[in-house]
Amino acid sequence: MADEDGALTPPEATGLLTLAEASDRLPSPYALEDFSAASGQPWVAVALGGETASGEAVARLCEALPHFVCPTIAFVPEPEAPAARDLAEAFDVVAESREDLALLVENIERTPLATTALVQLLRGHEHRTIEQALVAESFVYSTLQAGPEFAAWLAAQPTLRPVIPEEPPVLVERNGKRLDLVLNHPAKRNAYSAAMRDQLCEALQLAVTDDSIEEIVLRGDGPSFCSGGDLDEFGLLADPATAHAIRTTRSVPRLLAVCAPRLRAELHGACVGAGIELPAWAGRVVAKQDTFFQLPEVSMGLIPGAGGTVSLPRRVGRRRTAWIALTGVRVAPDTAKGWGLIDEAC
Fold first, then answer.
1. Distance CA 332, CA 287 (A)
2. Would you call 36 helix, strand, or coil by DSSP?
3. Confidence check: pLDDT of 163 > 70
């Protein structure tokens, strides 16, 4: 709500709401301002177990939730009734323990602008084509690049010293009907750089135009498949608008989506940020037992920007994508397989 000067003020109560409290309070138009990064309360959490509310009240709550300008958290401790699980589908993310809830709240309060942008983007993706979703992701990423949270993260980093690799960042080899693409900067754990992006685009453009290529294999050299975006390049472009134009012109995610039925990704070691966002497009993803998956971008005041807000929901759904991104936790291969993030753990 607003005071006499027009400034937004936080709600009186900021804790976990019961289902009855949420059904009564959240459908109000005032609640959209009560729970917002602009008012200082950047999350809303509702406990879905142990009580009931009228069907009409729950329906109003579910109708209101997609309009909130903050992450909505369903607290559903195990085990709970199926009805609580079904209702959780109306929220952005699910916490199954007090520890999970505390982690979500801590991270959301650290970078409220990025977390808000992430969940709003993921909600909208459910109604967008792949092309539309990738463009929307780039717009949001560019906006956050100009924001205070990313600026604070960038200011805390060591002096940037981009390293130009001596070898090609991607090795491309054609073997009959098979095209092998190998990320080739092991000294930096195959950090996803502009040069790597450009070479992947060139190779994938060939795959898109050449129907005789029946199989594409994507893997990485060295100890890890890909450790994420090359941090030494973060913040180097002159402005976010130019970055958006480049990102949507040379779009590896768009090309991977086209090639997906022919694409196999073989993963190992660290698969961080782009290291899982890109291979998640593949028709088949295989990971070794030493692999782990992580999306750290929200902690930097950003969102996944290599197509991950589009590729991951198509594998694990919107709520699990939000969980991985909002918590920043490492996901092990067996868990990833159970969720559908990968197809095989070997």
1. 10
2. strand
3. no
